[in-house]
Design the sequence.
């Protein structure tokens, strides 16, 4: 990198998910995270996830964010996966199941040294719960 070039330290600040039914998604994430939203109006709802904000935005508002591109068609299958790293995946999965989360895959040790489980939200956004097994 050119040492004269100005640089910045990237830090993820927010993730916006387009949702079809804001109320259903708001209720889902309130259950999953056991948190009240940071804000909520007729077009969006935000949740604090550590230093990152998860913004749920009604699909009809999507074009103003991604123009000139167009938002992808909903329910055509996951196009990304969001991951939450935890210390004890089995405990977290049990907790989320008690909160009504249905898992697509249950905790499984993977060859890359992680134990993972996955679920989807009402708009098919894929989430992974992952635990580092500490294997190099």
Sequence:
């Amino acid at each position: 990198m050119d040492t004269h070039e100005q640089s910045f330290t990237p830090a993820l600040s927010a993730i916006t998910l387009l949702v079809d039914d804001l109320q259903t998604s708001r209720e889902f994430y309130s259950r999953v995270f056991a948190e009240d939203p940071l804000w909520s109006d007729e077009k969006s709802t935000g949740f604090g996830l550590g230093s990152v904000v998860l913004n749920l935005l009604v699909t009809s508002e999507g074009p103003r964010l991604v123009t000139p591109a167009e938002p992808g068609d909903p329910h055509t299958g996951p196009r990304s996966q969001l991951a939450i790293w935890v210390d004890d995946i089995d405990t977290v999965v049990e907790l989320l199941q008690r909160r009504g989360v249905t898992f697509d895959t249950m905790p499984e040790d993977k060859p890359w040294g992680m134990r993972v489980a996955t679920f989807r939200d009402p708009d098919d956004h894929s989430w992974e719960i992952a635990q580092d097994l500490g294997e190099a």
The first helix runs from residue 22 to 33. Helices lie at 22-33, 62-66, 89-98.
